[in-house]
Design brief:
The structure is a single chain. The chain has 146 residues and is of the alpha/beta class. The protein contains 4 helices and 6 strands, in the order E-H-E-E-E-H-E-H-E-H. Strands 2-3-4-5-1-6 form a 6-stranded mixed β-sheet, with helices on both faces. Strand 4, helix 2 and strand 5 form a beta-alpha-beta unit. Helix 1 packs across helix 4 and helix 2 runs parallel beside helix 3. The chain starts with a strand and ends with a helix. 32% of the residues are buried.
């Protein structure tokens, strides 16, 4: 069974940046990872990316673009069909069609779903995004997802 981790918050609150920090954290923590797919240069990722990694024989999908009307459900469905991830991490807003997209994918593939939000601060954005990445990794580790 797959697990979806939905990172939700309002626009401009660090969802994509937190997922970017997680991607970089995973690639540096597991240097023997294999990049299965990336729509950008994985060595120089920027926000709004798709990255599929294999780590210790499991597939991790990270989809950082979760804006309304961006075709999120179609993109998540494509990830589930094409890569069959053990863990899918995606960005979503707190309500509306992006939340419905994640819930529909959860139901369609009988996945577990964990909702998490970003940390909000008026400064030190990089610091809190990096902390969020470490906390998500710790959560995955404690749940034996990685």
């Amino acid at each position: 069974m797959s697990t979806i981790i939905g990172i939700w918050n309002a626009s401009g609150k660090g969802k994509s940046s937190s997922i970017l920090s997680l991607a970089n954290f995973l690639m540096s923590t597991y240097p023997s990872h294999r990049v299965v797919h990336c729509n950008k240069n994985p060595s120089a990722l920027t926000i709004d990316f798709r990255l599929i990694l294999e780590i210790k024989g499991k597939i991790y999908a990270l989809e950082s673009m979760g804006d309304p009307n961006s075709g999120l459900e179609r993109r998540l469905d494509d990830i589930m069909v094409t890569y069959k991830p053990d863990v899918l991490v995606c960005a979503t807003r707190t309500r509306g069609n992006t939340v419905l997209a994640v819930q529909n994918i959860k139901a369609k593939y009988s996945s577990d779903l964990i909702w998490s939000s970003t940390y909000q601060t008026s400064h030190s954005h990089t610091l809190v995004n990096d902390a969020k990445a470490e906390h998500l990794h710790d959560l995955m580790r404690k749940l034996s997802l990685i």
